[in-house]
Amino acid sequence: MEFADVVRRRRMTRAYDPAPVDPDVLDRLLAQAHRAPSAGNSAGWAFVVLDSPETVAGFWRAQTDAALPDGSPDAWLTGMMRAPVVVVPCSRRSVYLERYAGTDKERAGLGGRDERQWTMPYWDLDTAMAALLLLQGATDAGLGSCFFGLVPDRVDAVKEVLGLTGDDAPHPIGAVTIGHPDPAAAASSGRSLRRRTDWREVAHRGRYGAGWG
Q1: What are the pLDDT digits (tens) for 75-132?
Q2: How far apart are the two ends of the chain, measured CA to CA in Å?
Q3: Taking CA atoms, which of 13, 59, 88, 116 is between 20 and 30 Å from 200?
Q4: pLDDT digit string, tens, across residues 156-205
Q5: What is the distance between the alpha carbons of residues 183 and 163, in angstroms, rounded to a whole number?
Q6: Residue 157 to residues 115, 199, 207: CA-CA distances in angstroms?
Q7: Closest-CA residue to 45 (of 126, 114, 165, 166)
Q8: Rounded to an integer, what distance in angstroms lies between the CA atom of residue 28 and that of residue 143?
């Protein structure tokens, strides 16, 4: 598939057929995600891959127990829980702090172990770019995918079930479901009522507020 087609066709898939994903395809998606750019070539991310019914179910139990007062998933969650693969991209702050404490970066006055020197948490930003490559790779492979945030008061439960414990443990920035789109749901979903903003409305030439053209 041409890159322009991947960008145009990528959508958040919220209902899946439970058919498994080819393990070789999943390997390829993770290899592509690992090609994401990162500050100092730190690659300070980790991907916790859940691709068995047991591990996927464990994730959803940790993620949803407190979010479902009546104990029954709604239509959105039912469709999402059928995805055979959940990838949890995690950022590793310590990798960046150590990398930028190196002699080459120290001479340039960059970063260091003092987090206050960083203008933003690039460990989270870089991990998000890696997650985007997962989404685009899934589209290129003819699969569906969806990035979503963790329920705020369930983050600790998710970290526990995934083994992300300890002061230096990677931090989950969200989760990505991957699988074959449910054809019935896709046929009946229609387009979102919210119009996608035209790029000319958000591009500014020269300075913010100048607009485009």
Answers
A1: 888 999 999 999 999 999 999 998 888 766 665 566 567 777 788 899 999 999 999 9
A2: 31
A3: 13
A4: 999 999 999 998 999 999 999 999 999 887 655 555 567 789 999 999 99
A5: 35
A6: 26, 39, 44
A7: 126
A8: 13
Q: Looking at residue 40, what DSSP letter applies?
A: G
Rounded Cα gap, residues 25 and 20, in angstroms: 11
Residue 40 structure tokens: 């100092």
Q: Which residue has the tokens 């498994």?
A: 20
Q: How far apart are CA 2 and CA 136, in angstroms?
A: 11
Contact 111, 102 (CB under 8 A): no
Q: How far is 127 from 84, CA to CA, in rounded Å? A: 22
Q: In whole angstroms, give the CA distance from residue 184 to residue 16.
A: 9
Report pTM.
0.89
Q: What is the C-alpha separation between 83 and 137, in angstroms, rounded?
A: 16
Q: Which amino acid does the sequence have at 169?
A: A
CB 87, CB 147: distance < 8 Å = no
CA distances from 98 to 7, 40, 41, 113, 171 (A): 35, 11, 12, 6, 17
Which residues are CB-neighbours of 111 under 8 A, at least 6 positions away?
A: 39, 40, 96, 97, 99, 100, 101, 105, 117, 118
Cα 101 to Cα 93: distance, rounded to the nearest angstrom: 13
